Fold this sequence. Notes:
Helix content is 29%, strand content 34%. By secondary structure, the protein is of the alpha+beta class.
Amino acid sequence: MLSIKRILACLALLCLPAVAVGQGLDAAKLDQAFNRSGQKLGDVYKFGFPRTDLHVTVNGVAIKPGLALGSWAAFSGTDTDAMVMGDLVLLQDEVNPVMTKLRQSGFEITALHNHLLGETPRVMYMHYMGHGNAAELASSLRAALGESKTPFGKPAGSAESEAPPPFVKAVEDALGRKGSFAGGVLGFGIPRAEAITMDGVTVLPSQGVAEGINFQEAGDGKVATTGDFVLTAGEINPVISALEAHHILVTALHSHTLGEQPRLFFMHFWGRGPTADVAEGIKAALEKVRVK
């Protein structure tokens, strides 16, 4: 026979909001902190903060926010014991005010660097990690981003046409993978074959350890591509060779995280050219990487 205490405990669990029980995080509290909805990706709840306020060009190509100007935050864990990882897109004069605010709240800064070369205005990328109460992490991150001009109004609905432009199918066919098309950008998040851990905890692909590859139209039947290959040490130079053979530039090579196993390096790149040529270059580089 169940004791009164056990009956009360079961009833209490039944009364908890389904979102908190189902994924370990109260999504409504996180949504409230950022004034927008996140996206549930398995055990991760992720927010995007595109820098739609910036007008960045690279070699005459106007960069869409989804191509290379997307700040993000990925939450995992529970309401009381959460981890958040992410990447913030910042102008140079925003870097230290945002960093100071994050450090005051106990966040770790795991990297600060470029992803592009020759862009105007100059853009920096700050990678970070935080542990603690989920709602408090969200509130602190929101306050830190308040030191920048990152837009926080609710994003406008997508105005994309029903049929993606022809380059989307051409790239997907070349890579043999389906991407996601939104905001004029075709994006791929390709998980590595092996598990990535940090302090004994598995880091999920959507927390920034998947191969991130984006494409957008760049005029005259051409596309631009950028993103980052997530590589082990032995993969770095084979990937460089594959990119160079297809006239895709390496723009940065560095770390994004601290203490991960296996040790990872992040290689950023930039290419612009005929769709088939650019897609073939990315395919050749991916063949040098252990991906699923």
